[in-house]
């Protein structure tokens, strides 16, 4: 009916076309009035037809994919509702996290984007960590997640992307370690409102990183926040300032433990955290003012690590532990007499100002009687006379620990602190000495206390009277004394350890971990073991302190922690050396979300997707049987990545689709509409296209009463074709992680269909992606009868075993699988993995049938496969 033509119509159209081609007006004024009216009428009818078509599509899904940015591999994808402005459709992504500790899996956004893509959105970190990556159903991703997968694949094609960035070579200003610790504590407790005192904000940065090539002057207006952001980028791009977190190093490996490092190493660690945190604060408020392209994945890693560290870790200074009981060794009367004689010789040398001899005599006396407070106090005085103030402070400190009532030792500790410019500590010690001495207080004690108070008063005067720079630095110097590490120990307390312990137990429960009782017993004692100084895995510390990086890093951390807290398997099972290895246990198996088994088994009833893991899945069978098959082991799957992620699947060689911001661009990508040919009557074509009776709602696949049961997961051994240690970062080699895997495994899934007796077996040769669609608006949407054939055919899962691509793939007709029966979506996913086909998955609550089919076609993602579940 649509293409019914007559010779009269053909002649009329050809003659009109010929006349139009012979007429070339130079302006609208040259047109014949009748011709002008005719053209206006044609334009009016064209506009009316366009509005009619747009109304039919209103609320339909429009998928746009933006190709790589010039000079970079960035790819993004998004879904919108047609005709409803620029608002993104309500994509039902992952549900909210069930526990605060699980929020670590998704990374924070530091630049609050107002419009367009910020530099942060175009800097690759990890696809899993993106809050918009995971789909609503286990094993699936969102449309935005598909863009992230394209981005990651682009980087794989290009190899390691080389980004030219600026790097600051200016030396860092000297900051005492106490100053770094003080500032870290300030940022955690009360950082202040950024921008409230812009001069102080800038002074804080200058003290930390220097003036970055511009001399700060109070007469100037200072530098804009955006400029400082760019300068902090250049600082963190230095090789000695940005830790290689993205290469697999844990955050805790950088700082945890008793800090048995040099002062220079300590200073570098804390300066890096501070610089990254100061940058994070400024990105949050002024991020869009920075225009440089110097933000790198390394900086993103440092930003995330620093933000978590400052938020979740408390620095606690404690007095240095002195085991006074071990100093009180019993001595004989003869030894005591010898020690007293040495003390008298030391006193004589002190009175004669022969301090080296005095030091020697006191040291010999201490060697005989190490628990004598007087000997320690006297040697402290000798050390002070020789300008060895730290040694003097240590001896006096031990003396007051041995005898807390020894006033003279307190005074000598105060004297040592005064020499070290620790006037606040000196005042406390002198005050204690005066209090203990009572009526026997000496002039030396009184004078020492007065000098300490005078020094503090002078420092406070600088804070009150000087210019802004002097005030700032004088105030910091006073506060830094509270963080002086002399005779102190540094401990890091987790502010979230109870939350993290509860989160680990909940993760084990959700995953149906078969050793849950072991985990409870072990994890309750874990934090105490860490505080006691026991050497534990950095993965454990990352989890307990809540500082694990997001995405694949968190997935590895939480499973490693779970294994380490299960003694019955951690004795024989080392930690995984790869982000993607699965875990096989006698009772269950667990698979990473981005692996072939993770993506396919996500459709298995009862499994969950949590923190990058799919489980609990059935236990596996090995083909051929392997030694100790029932024991725990890591599994490295062999499955080919589908390199043609989009569009080329059904249209080889076609360019990546680009759709602009205007909704009308969708009309030109509409596969349902065929424009009239040169011999077709446009008036008749428009009339039929504008006739509401010609637009119908396509029939959706009906619910099936059949069932599909997964009978077994079979793993076929495949010799590994490369050295597995290439997966292992150098810093992890030899520290208790698994690096001796000799086999990869190709997965096979065996199904039993209720409608067929023979079992069906699918081999997961590839690792496809499955995209869950968001709902459309105002559906179900109608399609023109011209395109009805595209929506009238679908296949059952029984037919899949007899069919294979490319025979089923037609560029103008997506392949629709009716997988509405119980368990059939799982089989459909397995079929895709066997034949290397990505697929769009529509589940309950998703878009209408018309939108789902178009999303799988060339005007959508171009997969050519729709699983209707």
UniProtKB/TrEMBL annotation:
Key words, A-Z: TPR repeat
PROSITE patterns: TPR (PS50005)
Pfam families in alphabetical order: TPR_1
Sequence ranges of the TPR repeats: 339-372, 407-440
Keyword hit for Nucleus: no
InterPro entries linked: TPR-like_helical_dom_sf, TPR_rpt
Protein name in the entry: Uncharacterized protein
């Amino acid at each position: 009916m649509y293409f019914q033509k007559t010779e009269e119509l053909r002649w009329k159209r050809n003659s009109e076309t010929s006349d139009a081609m012979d007429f070339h007006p130079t302006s609208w004024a040259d047109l014949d009035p009748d011709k002008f009216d005719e053209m206006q009428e044609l334009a009016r009818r064209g506009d009316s037809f366009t509005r009619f078509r747009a109304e039919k599509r209103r609320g339909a899904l429009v998928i746009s994919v933006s190709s790589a940015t010039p000079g970079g591999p960035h790819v993004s994808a998004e879904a919108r509702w047609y005709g409803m402005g620029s608002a993104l459709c309500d994509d039902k992504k992952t549900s909210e996290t069930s526990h605060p500790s699980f929020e670590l899996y998704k990374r924070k956004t530091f630049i609050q984007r107002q419009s367009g893509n910020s530099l942060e959105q175009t800097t690759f970190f990890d696809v899993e960590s993106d809050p918009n990556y995971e789909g609503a159903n286990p094993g699936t991703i969102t449309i935005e997640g598909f863009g992230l997968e394209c981005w990651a694949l682009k980087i794989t094609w290009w190899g390691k992307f080389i980004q030219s960035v600026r790097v600051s070579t200016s030396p860092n200003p000297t900051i005492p370690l106490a100053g770094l610790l003080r500032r870290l504590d300030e940022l955690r407790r009360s950082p202040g409102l950024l921008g409230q005192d812009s001069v102080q904000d800038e002074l804080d940065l200058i003290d930390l990183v220097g003036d970055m090539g511009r001399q700060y002057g109070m007469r100037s207006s200072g530098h804009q926040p955006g400029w400082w952001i760019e300068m902090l980028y250049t600082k963190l791009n230095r090789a000695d300032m940005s830790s290689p977190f993205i290469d697999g190093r844990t955050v805790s490996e950088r700082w945890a433990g008793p800090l048995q490092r040099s002062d220079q190493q300590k200073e570098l660690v804390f300066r890096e955290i501070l610089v990254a945190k100061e940058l994070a604060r400024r990105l949050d408020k002024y991020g869009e003012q920075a225009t440089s392209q110097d933000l790198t994945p390394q900086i993103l890693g440092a930003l995330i690590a620093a933000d978590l560290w400052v938020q979740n870790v408390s620095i606690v200074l404690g007095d240095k532990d002195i085991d006074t009981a071990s100093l009180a060794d019993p001595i004989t009367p003869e030894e005591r007499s010898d020690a007293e004689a040495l003390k008298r010789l030391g006193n004589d040398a002190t009175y004669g100002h022969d301090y080296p001899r005095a030091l020697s005599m006191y040291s010999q006396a201490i060697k005989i009687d190490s628990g004598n407070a007087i000997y320690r106090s006297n040697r402290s005085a000798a050390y002070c006379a020789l300008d060895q103030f730290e040694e003097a402070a240590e001896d006096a400190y031990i003396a007051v620990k041995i005898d807390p009532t020894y006033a003279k030792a307190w005074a000598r500790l105060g004297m040592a602190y005064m020499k070290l410019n620790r006037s606040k500590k000196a005042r406390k010690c002198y005050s204690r000495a005066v209090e203990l001495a009572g009526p026997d207080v000496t002039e030396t004690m009184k004078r020492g206390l007065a000098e300490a108070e005078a020094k503090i008063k002078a420092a406070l005067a600088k804070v009150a009277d000087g210019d802004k720079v002097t005030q700032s630095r004088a105030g910091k110097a006073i506060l830094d004394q509270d963080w002086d590490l002399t005779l102190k120990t540094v401990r890091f307390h987790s502010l979230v350890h109870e939350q993290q312990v509860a989160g680990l137990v909940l993760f084990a429960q959700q995953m149906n971990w078969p050793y849950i009782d072991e985990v409870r017993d072990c994890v309750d004692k874990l934090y105490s073991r860490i505080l006691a100084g026991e050497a534990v895995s950095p993965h454990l510390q990352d989890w307990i302190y809540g500082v694990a990086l997001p995405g694949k890093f968190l997935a590895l951390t939480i499973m490693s922690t779970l294994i380490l807290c299960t003694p019955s398997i951690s004795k024989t099972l080392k930690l995984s050396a790869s982000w993607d290895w699965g875990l096989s246990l006698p009772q269950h198996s667990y698979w990473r979300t981005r692996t072939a088994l993770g993506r396919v088994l996500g459709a298995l009833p009862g499994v969950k997707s949590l923190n990058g893991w799919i489980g609990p899945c059935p236990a596996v069978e090995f083909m051929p049987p392997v030694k100790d098959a029932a024991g725990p082991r890591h599994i490295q799957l062999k499955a080919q990545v589908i390199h043609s992620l989009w569009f080329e699947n059904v249209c080889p060689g076609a360019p990546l689709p680009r759709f602009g911001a205007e909704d009308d661009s969708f009309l030109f990508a509409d596969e349902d509409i065929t424009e009239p040919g040169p011999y077709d009557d446009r008036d008749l074509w428009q009339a039929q296209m504008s006739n509401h009776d010609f637009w119908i709602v396509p029939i959706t696949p009906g619910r099936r009463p059949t069932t599909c049961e997964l009978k077994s997961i079979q793993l076929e051994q495949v010799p590994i074709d490369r050295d597995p240690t290439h997966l292992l970062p150098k810093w992890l080699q030899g520290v208790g992680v698994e690096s001796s895997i000799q086999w990869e495994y190709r997965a096979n899934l065996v199904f039993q269909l209720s409608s067929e007796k023979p079992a069906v077996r699918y081999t997961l040769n590839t690792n496809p992606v499955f995209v869950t669609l968001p709902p459309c608006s105002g559906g179900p949407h109608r399609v023109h009868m011209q395109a009805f054939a595209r929506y009238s055919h679908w296949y059952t899962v029984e037919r899949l075993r007899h069919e294979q691509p490319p025979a089923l793939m037609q560029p103008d007709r997506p392949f629709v699988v009716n997988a509405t029966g119980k368990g059939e979506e799982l089989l459909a996913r397995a079929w895709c993995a066997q034949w290397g086909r990505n697929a769009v998955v529509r589940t309950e609550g998703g878009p209408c049938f018309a939108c789902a089919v178009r999303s799988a076609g060339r005007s959508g993602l171009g997969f050519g496969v729709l699983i209707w579940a």
